[in-house]
Amino acid sequence: MPTEQELSAFLRSVDKRAFKRAQFATQNPDAALDVVQDSMIRLADKYGDHDPAEWPMLFQRILTNAILDWHRRQKVRSAWMSNLSDFQGAGDGEEFDLLETLEIEACSEQLEGADRQLERSQTLAILDGEIQKLPDRQREAFLLRYWEGLDVAETAAVMGCSEGSVKTHCSRATHTLAKALKAQGFDHGHT
């Protein structure tokens, strides 16, 4: 039986990433905080006695459902409908993994000067804005895969869709983000 300290430690380890993900989805910091807090309470209430190894996937699924519930409530309240990306397959092509490139570059951050660190923070700020513009399903798949580090199968389970859909959403998202960064003067060869 897991201890309360183990559960608290897990929740602390996911709170910042979960908040960022919810903020992308809701585009409202107060709503994002509510969604994350509700998700944490649901995990503690329903699954606090489960094996801690199960918590990451359970929490991601709970958070996804809480975000979807928030969107449903918004739709009812304001008759607002979000544009979801379609589920048609994308053409095969070479994928450029934007966040992997940024992650590799981040390893040398301690050796960089202030100019390079400023450039990286500007790039990440632009990327942050572009992620917010992605269609909901693309953004969700992208964040689960590259922000949360889930594999394709885990992402499909969390999103309730096929692995092929996850790959399509991620491919479209990375292409859109790479194109947006290139339009801003950045590309994957940029140093």
UniProtKB/TrEMBL annotation:
<dbReference type="GO" id="GO:0006352">
    <property type="term" value="P:DNA-templated transcription initiation"/>
</dbReference>
<dbReference type="InterPro" id="IPR013324">
    <property type="entry name" value="RNA_pol_sigma_r3/r4-like"/>
</dbReference>
<dbReference type="Pfam" id="PF08281">
    <property type="entry name" value="Sigma70_r4_2"/>
</dbReference>
<keyword id="KW-0804">Transcription</keyword>
<keyword id="KW-0805">Transcription regulation</keyword>
<keyword id="KW-0731">Sigma factor</keyword>
<feature type="domain" description="RNA polymerase sigma factor 70 region 4 type 2">
    <location>
        <begin position="127"/>
        <end position="173"/>
    </location>
</feature>
<dbReference type="InterPro" id="IPR013249">
    <property type="entry name" value="RNA_pol_sigma70_r4_t2"/>
</dbReference>
<dbReference type="InterPro" id="IPR039425">
    <property type="entry name" value="RNA_pol_sigma-70-like"/>
</dbReference>
<comment type="similarity">
    <text>Belongs to the sigma-70 factor family. ECF subfamily.</text>
</comment>
<protein>
    <submittedName>
        <fullName>Putative RNA polymerase sigma factor</fullName>
    </submittedName>
</protein>
<dbReference type="GO" id="GO:0016987">
    <property type="term" value="F:sigma factor activity"/>
</dbReference>
<dbReference type="InterPro" id="IPR013325">
    <property type="entry name" value="RNA_pol_sigma_r2"/>
</dbReference>
<dbReference type="InterPro" id="IPR014284">
    <property type="entry name" value="RNA_pol_sigma-70_dom"/>
</dbReference>
<dbReference type="GO" id="GO:0003677">
    <property type="term" value="F:DNA binding"/>
</dbReference>
<dbReference type="InterPro" id="IPR036388">
    <property type="entry name" value="WH-like_DNA-bd_sf"/>
</dbReference>
